[in-house]
């Protein structure tokens, strides 16, 4: 026992029971394996109080949070999955619901992160706070790899801890007085972050929509691209291509119409290109391939679905210098202030991984990973097509959008979970136009995807 532990033990034994009951603390010694270090550490943890005081502060709850409906979609799915596991403890539950990657990060990338982490234990290799906007080498690599020839410079790029985080930072940038439009269906974070910021009205249960949001209907009948002639003018337009959840991809002609629409209305497009590396045809990989986009668009993207960085957390946002507010002030300068105020920069270890991603070897490794998931997608598409379902997506995205006409999405989700022990995602969770659809993710081990498809065939044969 170390001197510190002896002193603490003596302190505990000499302390009276009144002290312990008043402070509600428990001291305990745990075995922890730490190479080259002492193997026993003492932890001080709070013991939960058995008494409920009933005390409430005088601080009002954020009324915008009270507008949110139920739980965020994916935690709600996780809750139902966990309840199913309790009901069927021996079942092999397969998750093809949440878009979380499953395959290991390529070694060329993890070795770069390991090297950076090891260097932090040396005087020569240690680094503390970095630039909030990201390391210069990584910003330059992103610009040269994904935006070469598009007029985007490294200074236009802000490295972050993921596209989802940047969506919320952008909402802070825009504030509560802007109006917004969103694809319907779309990734729930766009709408929920808008609600939290106070940009919306109350949820209208009869139409399953929030007031003051322009829902741009994207369904098979309009090739999953909104009829812009019927879309009201808004300040902000959230647009994702390839789309989550439908898997559809906007063509060059369609994106040209979107940019022209935004320019005509004086709007800003927030373009989510998190799945661009899955594109197999000649659809644009970036909104900045469209003439005039630098004057009306912001692009967010991520390494999550390319390199398996869903847990590592690394993404970026592009805000061109040409993008201006109505008073002529550069949007990028205000976003820079948001970043410097609310963020200390992405992990230096993660950024080392990002730089490795963009090396020739890293790019090849990411293409192979993307190719693996696309093979999974093909298997899922062929399975549902063989069962007579209408299937969308899957070509340029890791998601398959399956139509169950006339049925509730949550009912289909429950049926599949109950009878096959496979987790999917109900389409209505992405917006009212998603009703009657279920999203099936291709993120899974090959054996699990094959087994899930076998179960689908048993259920719907």
Features of the shown structure:
single chain; 461 residues; alpha/beta; Aspartate Aminotransferase, domain 1; seven-stranded mixed beta sheet; 38% helix; 15% strand
CATH superfamily (homologous) name of the largest domain: Type I PLP-dependent aspartate aminotransferase-like (Major domain)
Order of strands, widest sheet: 4-12-11-10-9-5-8
CATH topology grouping of the largest domain = Aspartate Aminotransferase, domain 2
What Rg, in angstroms, do the CA atoms define?
25 Å
Set down the secondary structure blueprint.
Blueprint: H1 3-14, H2 17-23, E1 25-31, E2 40-46, H3 73-87, E3 94-95, H4 107-119, H5 136-146, E4 157-160, H6 163-174, E5 180-184, H7 188-197, E6 203-204, E7 209-210, E8 213-217, E9 236-240, H8 252-265, E10 268-272, E11 297-302, H9 304-307, E12 315-318, H10 331-342, H11 348-357, H12 360-386, E13 391-393, E14 399-403, H13 409-420, E15 422-423, E16 425-426, E17 437-441, H14 446-460
Parallel strand pairs: 3-15, 5-8, 5-9, 9-10, 10-11
Antiparallel strand pairs: 1-2, 4-12, 6-7, 11-12, 13-14, 14-17, 16-17
Helix pairs in contact: 4-11, 6-7, 6-10, 12-14
